[in-house]
Design goal:
The complex is a heterodimer of chains A (about 140) and B (about 500).
Chain A: H1 6-29, H2 37-55, H3 57-63, H4 68-88, E1 98-103, E2 107-112, H5 114-137
Antiparallel strand pairs in A: 1-2
Chain B: H1 7-21, H2 26-54, E1 57-60, E2 71-74, H3 76-99, H4 102-125, H5 129-147, H6 153-184, H7 189-199, H8 203-220, H9 228-233, H10 237-262, H11 270-291, H12 295-316, H13 319-350, H14 361-364, H15 366-380, H16 387-400, H17 404-428, H18 448-463, H19 465-480, H20 482-490
Antiparallel strand pairs in B: 1-2
Helix pairs in contact in B: 1-2, 1-4, 2-3, 2-4, 3-4, 3-10, 3-13, 3-18, 3-19, 4-5, 4-10, 5-6, 5-10, 6-8, 7-20, 8-10, 10-12, 10-13, 11-12, 11-17, 12-13, 12-16, 12-17, 13-15, 13-16, 13-18, 13-19, 15-17, 15-18, 16-17
Family (chain A): Belongs to the CPA3 antiporters (TC 2.A.63) subunit B family.
InterPro entries (chain A): CPA3_antiporter_subunitB, MnhB
Membrane topology (chain A): Multi-pass membrane protein
Chain lengths: ~140, ~500
């Protein structure tokens, strides 16, 4: 019997956008307030898993052509990479740098290398979380 | 600040991550993982030199000063263990090249192997209790996967026990960390040591010390070794060898660190109790080693005996005892990897691990047989082989510390080792040749190199003991003077 999941699919279409926006907010907010790469990545993963649940693995795989295992590895590499940059400059491993810049639209903005580190964390979390769900679903 | 300290953790981690991306290219995996481990060995040699000349090295991660940030601390004890770890890992990796199936090698074997080494190295280097927990989890999670490699029925059964045991002990670990944090308000090992020295080690802290003892005893196989013979005898040889050589040793390292740096104020309670555990471990392990007729079982019970023996040196808390423990710990890492690889090769040749069915291997494989004989003698502690100095110093230490019974049991345990190893040698290598060349299931081609390497290292350790004496003495001195460690972290 074919399941009728029109409601789920319609809700998902809207909800995924909201979840992704919120997770981006969480991600950016994490620099000075609660949030950050880990939780931002986790909620992004939640959005992706929701897509998998409502549209089926094959359909989503057609549209998001990405190996999540590799995504996780790349995330960790980015995170370690920012740590290693500080080693090149002769500072302790993982030392972060930040400075204020005058950007055209945003005005005076703080740019921090922690953001790149956090991006790595987020990618690693997304990769791992989605991968866990996919592995469970592929049970033979 | 010394950024070299992070290299043994970061190198295998980066290479492991890169290998996840290229997991189908076996040749690249082999080359890169070998390079990563060789580089780690080189770094640990550099570290040993630096520590020897400039004292304990530290690194405050991210530039956050201790006790607020995470410190990495390399003292001589850690550095020596790092070097031994790298040597063992390189040899097991070379052994895995030929013994692991191609399909398994593509299934992320090399990345997991490297993550295991990352976790072990990190545990040796970190100066933060919670960070220690994280590195423990890192190598445990890798070992969970590695132990099931091959997916045989008994592997899955044993790995289930292994995982349950370790999850429970990790939960206790976390509880201990929480207790200690609520009592002292810090998790930096050096700061913990300071705070506990200030307020004194009262009953509550001693209880927490026992909680940590349970956790690390479970990981090290100190009396709580019920999971060990099963789970160390199921994985493929290369993996079993690195488990036997490294994983219990990390537990022992943690016991040493905690009970020389933090909980050293009430040795008549804690260390005496550890002594009883060590004695029981040696006796029970010895009984297991002489009782079984299964090659893998005998070898795993020998792992258990040596755990008890190494810890006996800690119990004495004398410089002779600790020196002996460090000697014996390094020797044991090398030698356990060696005999597991030889045992695995024997099984590879004959297809059985039942000693009664194996016979006369030395006629066709004299090299293998004599290397096993050397390893056996070295485990028993025949001079001038590598186990000798460790045994002498540990026994002297226990006698000096007044633990005559413990030293005596240690010596009796040596006899157990001698009996079990000679039983193995005489049954498997002597006697009538049962298998002709054609009947053997495999060849030793490609398997001998890592075995020879380890034998050479073990011989060098024994004959060149004088050469490393200054390093080992320094390590023992640093362990017995927590103030050196604390000073290094806070300066």
């Amino acid at each position: 019997m074919k399941q009728n999941d029109v409601i789920l699919q319609s809700v998902t279409r809207v909800a995924v956008v909201i979840i992704l926006t919120f997770s981006f907010y969480l991600f950016m907010n994490g620099h000075h307030h609660p949030g950050g790469g880990f939780i931002g990545g986790l909620s992004t993963a939640a959005a992706i898993v929701l897509l998998y649940l409502s549209f089926g693995i094959d359909k989503v795989r057609e549209n998001i052509r990405m190996d999540f295992k590799k995504l996780a590895a790349i995330g960790v590499l980015i995170a370690i990479g920012t740590g290693m940059t500080s080693v090149i400059f002769g500072k302790p491993f993982l030392t972060q740098a930040f400075d204020y810049f005058n950007l055209p639209i945003f005005g005076k903005t703080e740019l921090a290398s922690a953001l790149i580190f956090d991006t790595g964390v987020a990618l690693a979390v997304i990769g791992t979380a989605v991968n866990i769900i996919l592995s469970i679903s592929e049970d033979r | 600040m010394n950024n070299l300290l992070i290299a043994p953790v970061v190198l295998p981690l980066i290479i492991g991550m890169v290998l996840i991306i290229f997991h189908t290219n076996i040749k690249l995996q082999r080359v890169l993982s070998l390079i990563a481990l060789l580089a780690t060995s080189a770094v640990s040699v550099l570290l040993i030199n630096q520590i020897h000349q400039q004292g304990i090295q530290t690194l405050q991660l991210g530039g956050w000063e201790a006790p607020y940030g995470i410190s990495f601390v390399g003292d001589m004890f850690s550095a020596l263990l790092l070097l031994a770890t790298s040597i063992v890992a390189v040899c097991c990796l070379i052994y895995a090249f030929t013994t692991m199936g191609r399909k398994q090698q593509k299934l992320y074997f090399y990345p997991l192997f490297l993550f295991l080494v990352t976790g072990v190295n990190g545990s040796f280097l970190t100066g933060d209790l919670f960070n220690l927990y994280v590195f423990f989890e890192l190598f445990l999670v890798s070992s969970y996967v590695l132990i099931t490699f091959g997916g045989e029925k008994r592997q899955l059964r044993e790995s289930l026990k292994y995982i349950f045991t370790n999850i429970i002990s990790s939960a206790f670990f976390l509880m201990g960390v929480a207790y200690l944090y609520s009592i002292t308000g810090t998790l930096n090992l050096a700061d913990l040591s300071l705070k506990i020295a200030e307020v004194g080690q009262d009953g509550l802290i001693t209880t927490v010390a026992f909680l940590f003892l349970i956790v690390f005893a479970l990981k090290a196989g100190l009396l709580l070794f019920f999971w060990l013979p099963g789970s160390y005898s199921v994985p493929p040889t290369a993996i079993a060898a690195i488990f036997a050589a490294l994983l219990t040793k990390v537990g022992i390292y943690a016991i040493f660190r905690m009970f020389t740096l933090i909980f050293y104020h009430e040795p008549q309670i804690t260390h005496w109790f550890i002594g009883i555990l060590a004695a029981l471990t040696m006796i029970l392990g010895g009984l297991g080693a002489i009782g079984f007729w299964d090659l893998k079982k005998i070898l795993t019970y020998n792992v258990v005996i040596s755990v008890g023996f190494i810890v006996a040196g800690l119990v004495s808390l004398t410089s002779a005892g600790i020196t002996g423990s460090i000697y014996y710990l390094i020797h044991d890492m090398i030698i356990k990897a060696l005999i597991f690889l030889i045992g695995g090769t024997v099984i590879h040749l004959t297809g059985t691990s039942d000693l009664k069915e194996i016979s006369g291997l030395i006629r066709r494989h004299p090299g293998l047989g004599w290397m096993f004989f050397l390893a056996a003698l070295s485990m028993v502690g025949i001079p001038p082989l590598s186990g000798f100095l460790g045994k002498v110093f540990i026994t002297r230490g226990t006698f000096e510390g007044g633990y005559f019974w413990l030293g005596a049991i240690g010596l009796v345990a040596s006899l157990f080792i001698l009996y079990s190893m000679m039983k193995l040698f005489m049954n498997a290598f002597w006697g009538e040749m049962k298998l002709s060349e054609e009947e053997e299931l495999g060849t030793t081609k490609g398997l001998i190199l890592p075995i020879v390497l380890l034998t050479v290292v073990s011989l060098a350790l024994g004959i060149g003991a004088e050469g490393i004496a200054c390093y080992v003495t320094q390590a023992a001195e640093e362990l017995l003077n927590p103030s050196l460690y604390i000073q290094a972290v806070f300066d």
